[in-house]
Specification:
This protein has 13 helices and 18 strands. With about 475 residues, it is of the alpha/beta class. Helix 4 packs across helix 10, helix 11 packs parallel to helix 13 and helix 12 packs across helix 13. It starts with 8 loop residues before the first helix and ends with a helix.
Length: about 475
């Protein structure tokens, strides 16, 4: 096992400049010294010493279709040579066609007419969704959201994100959300099936509407104080927690009874991460609003947006100028988004992702049998989790996972004569979960390689 890696002289010069000139507010250094990367392709990135790393988190799911995807890169290059930019008050073909593609797909899947509104990223699109929801509910500013939920770090988005540390220094935009327990079965009450626990969580939420003294409902006017429930169908930063399949169907029934909108945050799980375009599709419900970002452009351009039901976003209720961004619906981003949809529609992309996910999950389950420190593994498509615990298989062990992440970034593991590093992401309520989001284009041999590298890290962690 190698010692702590020392930065090269060239890298150290850059790191010294970063320490002096760069805000630390827009980044987090998970290892010291931080790596500086020089190129990428497929499932790999290379640092300035040309050391390769297999990436199993793909920029937090922003690069679902692999680094430097030739087809998507070419779409961007072609757009640069035709219409690289245009003011957002002017129309261009890409905006209209991409909106149509998303809206027609939603109509087919959910039976609902709707419209698409663009912005420059996930958090900004969450802000736009808050405007749509508030506007449609006559200015209600209160929202429900989940414990463990993450929706961004802008002022509005942080108010519905369950981590206080994102709000601590800045106060609140409107009101903080009412955070409701998520059906995290591995850490839920024992003796219940996953579905039973999901139903219990819904029943606990429904209790808020039993009488006016539960604090959210006026039975005399049949009005709720809360406008919407913001959900990540699969929790992202919370640790890729996958709920019971009955959960959202039962929850949506309660929401519909009380006039509360469901906003599905698909920023991290959208665009086939779970084997479907939207992760909410797995749960047989009709969302009122969908928020998307990240992988729409495979990380090549900051573009996100929302789809909302016609009743919430038509021009009479949400007129021109309701919200705006200079770079919203920019032609470079919409060109890549259109090409992504064409690419994924040419083959049964969902089936491909589900098959790879099943293969990867089976490999994780095999590791779980051999390493007691793996408390839980689960997955849906290629959104996979591996929870690192103490030897009892349950007590969260953040320190061991931190060690594994650092070891993976040393770039000194050897598989079949090839020296490699492994890039992992840390999530979970206790920061003890490996949240695995590999490229959806990952090959089966690369999945096997990733499992071998994980095994080496688990051996190091167990023997340290």
């Amino acid at each position: 096992m190698s010692d702590i890696r020392i930065a090269t002289a060239e890298d150290q010069i850059l790191l010294d400049k970063e320490a002096k000139y760069c805000s630390y507010g827009d980044t987090v250094h998970y290892i010291e010294p931080p790596r500086i990367f020089s190129r990428c392709e497929g499932s790999y990135v290379w640092d300035t010493e040309d050391q390769a790393y297999l990436d199993l988190q793909m920029w937090y799911s922003a690069v679902n279709f692999g680094y430097a995807n030739p087809r998507l890169n070419n779409a961007l290059k072609q757009q640069i040579d035709t219409l690289p930019q245009i003011a957002s008050q002017y129309l261009h073909k890409g905006k209209i066609e991409l909106s149509e593609m998303i809206a027609v797909d939603a109509k087919k899947k959910f039976g609902l007419d709707g419209r698409v509104h663009f912005n420059v990223g996930g958090s900004q699109s969450i802000e736009d969704s808050l405007k749509v929801v508030r506007n449609a509910s006559n200015g209600k500013s209160l929202m429900f959201a989940f414990e463990g939920g993450y929706h961004g770090r802008t002022l509005g988005a942080s108010s519905i994100t369950s981590s206080f540390r994102y709000r601590r220094r800045y106060g609140h935009f409107g009101e903080r959300a009412n955070f409701i327990p998520f059906p995290y079965h591995f850490r839920g009450p024992k003796g219940m099936t996953k579905e039973e626990y999901g139903s219990q969580c819904v029943q606990q939420f429904a209790r808020l509407f039993e009488t006016e003294y539960n604090g959210v409902w006026d039975p005399k006017t049949n009005q709720c104080e809360y406008a919407a429930f913001y959900v990540e169908p699969i929790q992202g930063t919370g640790g890729y927690v996958i709920p019971p399949m009955n959960f959202y169907r039962e929850l949506k029934h309660v929401l519909d009874q009380h006039g509360i909108l469901m906003v599905s945050d698909e920023i991290q799980m959208g665009f086939y991460r779970t084997g479907k375009l939207w992760s909410i599709e797995h749960f047989d419900v009709q969302p009122d609003v969908i928020v998307f970002g990240k992988a729409l452009t495979n990380g090549l351009n900051p573009l996100g947006g929302i789809w909302a039901r016609e009743e919430l976003i038509n021009p009479k209720i949400f007129p021109p100028g309701s919200t705006h961004s200079t770079f919203a619906s920019n032609p470079l981003g919409t060109a890549v988004g259109l090409e992504m949809f064409k690419m994924t529609n040419e083959v049964d992309y969902g089936a491909m992702v589900m098959a790879k996910g099943k293969f990867f999950l089976e490999g994780l389950q095999d590791l779980q049998k051999r390493f007691p420190i793996i408390g839980d593994v689960d997955g849906l498509g290629l959104a996979l989790r591996c929870e690192i615990c103490c030897p009892d298989g349950f007590t969260p062990d953040k320190a061991t996972l931190d060690y594994m992440v650092e070891e993976g970034m040393k770039g000194d593991m050897v598989v079949d004569g090839q020296k490699l590093g492994l890039i992992l992401d840390v999530g979970g309520y206790y920061k003890n979960v490996i949240t695995l989001a590999p490229s959806l284009e990952i090959s089966y041999p690369e999945i096997e390689l990733g499992l071998k590298l994980l095994e080496q890290l688990l051996v190091r962690a167990t023997n340290r």
